[in-house]
Amino acid sequence: MILPIVAYGDPVLKKQAKDIPEDYPKLKELIENMWETMYGAYGVGLAAPQIGLPIRMFIIDPSPFAEDDDLSENDKEQLQGLKKVFINPQITEETGDEWAFNEGCLSIPEVREDVFRKPNIVIEYYDENFKKHTQEFTGLAARVIQHEYDHIEGILFTDKLSSLKKRLIKGKLENISKGKISIDYRMRFPKVKKGR
Q1: 130: which residues sit within 8 A by CB, 6+ positions away?
Q2: Where is the active site (predicted)?
Q3: What is the pTM of this model?
Q4: Residue 164 annotated in ligand binding
Q5: Which residue range forms the structural domain that includes residue 116?
Q6: 29-44: pLDDT as tens digits
Q7: Which end of the chain is more exposed for a tag (fewer CB within 10 A), N or C?
């Protein structure tokens, strides 16, 4: 089932998410719904807070990036078939010289900006069968994971922009939070508080 994606301005996107137990209710169904929602919106990653759940889980499938001719063979290889579920993840290491890449987000449609991140990460996580893994990722794969990981920490990519960039996109962000955008996937917009 395709779920609505929570739009910028919703408080759930700024909450630090909580770990989940192995017997979390309807976990398999939730994961299936998240895949369907992400693919329906042409995304490469989706975190649980983006569907309104403040839990430490996200999914990624950055394989569409593997078609990019500008990528190194190593990057392409790592991205192909990299479809993963991350439950209760913990990034334990981020290394290397920061590099910029133009990022976007399903919760912040039509806004793309360069974000600086470190190229190498080590992450501990549980998969959909609650099997524990410790894995290293580099380049674009690491970036997609870092972006989704930020979501479960209550951080959006726009939080990483300079104050000038933030001022330049302020109007766009306000329009998104008010639902004044045209997109081709389901979204849930923050409830606007009416004055008395």
Answers
A1: 22, 87
A2: 148
A3: 0.94
A4: no
A5: 5-181
A6: 999 999 999 999 999 9
A7: C
